[in-house]
Design brief:
Layout (H helix, E strand, L loop, with lengths): L1 H29 L2 H12 E6 L6 E2 L5 E13 L8 H11 L3 H6 L10 E7 L1 H10 L4 E10 L7 H4 L11 H5 L1 H4 L4 E7 L5 E9 L7 E2 L4 H17 L4 E8 L5 E7 L18 H4 L9 H11 L7 E3 L4 E4 L2 E4 L10 E3 H7 L2 H9 L5 H8 L26 H8 L8 H12 L3 E2 L14 E2 L3 H12 L19 E11 L2 E15 L6 E8 L7 H19 L10
Parallel strand pairs: 2-8
Antiparallel strand pairs: 1-6, 2-3, 3-4, 3-5, 6-7, 9-10, 9-19, 11-14, 12-13, 15-16, 17-18, 18-19
Helix pairs in contact: 3-5, 9-18, 11-13, 11-17, 13-15
Length: 554
Amino acid sequence: MRYFGRIYVIVALLSLAFVGLTWRIVYLGTVKRDFLQHQSAERSLRVVKVSAHRGIITDRNGSPLAVSTPVSSVWASPELYDPTKEQEEKLAFLLGAKLKSLRQKFSGGEEHSFVYLKRHLPPEQASSIRELGIPGVFMQQEYQRYYPEGEVTAQLLGFSDIDDKGVEGLELAYDKWLIGSAGKKEVIKDRLGHIVSELKVIQEPQAGHDLTLSIDRNIQYLAYRELQNTVDKYRAESGSAVVLDIKTGEVLAMVNKPSYNPNNRSSVKLTALRNRALTDVLEPGSTMKTFTITNALESGKFHPWNKVDTNPGYWFVDGKKITDREVTDMNYGVLTLTGVLQKSSNVGAAKIALALPPDSLPKLLHRFGFGDSTYSGFPGEAKGYVPDTVHNRQFVLATIAFGYGISVTPLQLARAYAVLGAEGILRPITFLKTNEPVVGQRVLSAGVAKQMLTMLQEVLATGGTGKRGQVSGYHIAGKTGTAYIANAHGYEKNSYYADFVGIAPATAPRLVVVVVIKKPQGEHFAAFVAAPAFANIMDGALRILNVPPDNLEK
């Protein structure tokens, strides 16, 4: 009987245990069902991001200028990170980091669930890290921007940051258009955080929109090469060049020196990031005489054949001396208006400006877009400066007439000259390819614009300052400009801007090219420094675009 009692006790205990387990199963399966499912999902079901690539930037002919390439970024989960000493040493080596700095990334303990170890690794490096098999170390696919043309398009395109967001140049200007939208997907991960199964896509990634620029890759390269040769030859501080389509307002090329490699910015100087062609201003010197003469013709009081007496080669205005040569007074004597342009006479330009209502020249310059943004949409574009009034300031007006006392950007200079080539129409500037005709706004009569083109051709004729800007087979209308550079203490004695602006073909205008060289050494006159670079760029651009010659020898 004693043994049966023990059996009853054991059976009773087993029955109680069975009832308890049954009740626990029922309780967990009903009352705690939702809670347990949530906890299970938290440990195995995850929603992960699916990266989307940034839109491609191409030139007008479809050549890629900026593309996004897939790369891997390495991250770790501190709570799962458990390498052997050998694995950790190899990981540090592959990451190019010291073992101490690698361990410091985990110094916060397990309170952080996500730590980047390194972003944007090349495939072979990422593969080597993956093969280590370290618990808690994972790969994440992302995209990195690559610029095939490198320094040739650097300041124009700018670049995107490590998160693929535009931070400079056109990458910044059109960031909302280019940037993609990441997707989401549901996955199952094991206890080490590895994905073992992909369940479903919650949200498809949306790639960024592609962007077609007005830039012609071949003309861009040509302009950059010629600018680089000129800057190097004259040991200049910097230089810029712009090629503009007169008919559409499209920028076909915009280059700067010094430049940088946007694919490797580890040692880039901040000064190299600027797109000087539209962020930096200069006093343009004699290229402004074109608009002084334009203003004179528009007034009706002057004609191309009217005479201006520049004797004896200098003139005093408000007690200050204006000369036709910086060192010795060059006496051009009596000149026609065309001669004032051809010889680039400061005295002649000043006398013409002061013979007209004082506000007429500043007003014309404003009409041509000076002193205001071109509204190209490029970040950081400078407006330049034109005095609003010059009443009772004769010397100020006289200096404006030959390119001092105002400031312009190379892009503004290109657009203003394009007005002459477009028979008096001011067209908006664009960096995007234009598929439709651009109407623009009339700011000058067609008759005066045509007169100016004829007169500007004489600047490149024998005896003109711009003869080195000639292009075989084409009539060229252009103007040289050489100007002192000002600093906080006044004008520097031996520092100059040398610039040249030209239009071609002069009889059927298609292109404007501007070349600006800052602080050339040895030689500083634009006729020698900027004009030859202009000729080479214009020559190449016309032939790339198959623009018919208008000056073939018979």
